[in-house]
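Input record (one chain):
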Amino acid sequence: MPTDTPISNSGPWDAKLQQFHGGQEWAQLSNFVEDFSVTTNPFGMPSGAKLAAAHSIEHSHHYPPADQEPAKSSLARFLWPSEFETERGRLILGNGASELIDLVIRMAPTGTWRPGPFYTQYKEYERSARNNNFTLLPPGTNDKANVACLVNPCNPTGDYLELPELKAWISDNVLPGGYAIIDESMQPWHSEQFREHSLTSQREYVEKLYREQGISVFVMHSWTKLWCCTGLRLGSVVCPTAEHMRAIKKIQVPWSVNTVALAFLNAVVDDAEYLQDTWELTPAWRKATVDMLQTLFPDWEFHGREFLSWIWIDTKDVGVAERAVELARAAGVPVRSGGPGYNLPAFIRVAVRHPAKVDVLVGALKAL
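The corresponding structure, as predicted from the sequence alone:
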């Protein structure tokens, strides 16, 4: 018989060992409506890929392919439609971006680590650097580091550097022989032209930087956000060279991406209609949500680029933010507090969701 498990202030997370993350409260809510605490695609799992994943269970008594094919080549074709055959040798898949973040930092040159230029960012890079005994430099430092990690677009702040700014930041912040890890998990939301704005399109630049300064640039993706499949765990990293990819493969455990996740990925990259809906409606739904909340709370500040799947909100008051989190949870529409992990308790993060679900959230927040 199921028993109730006491939930701490950090939920199921071990605050001493793990990095807090959203997306855990829904299972404890008997009146659950929608999860506004995570930055996943508001359109949910693509139906065709979900069906392919379900069908793959029939083959799950076999090991997954050790070379991650054909899913890896399918993702390469998605990233580089014309050059995928020459580029796929730099690509490797992982059990979410989290596995690959840790693997890349483990093989990085030891010494100092620094975050991107924004006042906070996704904390998994920092956790891995700390666990691997790097000296952590604070945000805003002028010192170059052996390893620099920039989340672009930045989750949660919503800041975004275009390619010229991004390249300048790498030059200004990474020591010769160092690693630059650029997380572009949310970058495909940019537009239908996302590829030409992505560092994945800059092979000549990456090769020149490695050849002349020994700086290795890695482009990280968590695909669980764009295709709303966080339970499947899918990530990838584009390495500066095929040799770097093989170095990761050498220390990666075999079969870290399971049969179901590979089947999902192999199918989802061909769902053009899903992406068109994403690019067309996410900005419109985001703007509508901001407009509604701004009307109710004119003192709040709303941050982030217009194409992003979330809104980073400064309520200006820790008590107001805490009350907003409580009201949202009570209404079955949990939002992300900026307190745990980010240590910004006056902030909340709200996902972009279908207007009908937003109405539930806004209705709950009217009690503030």
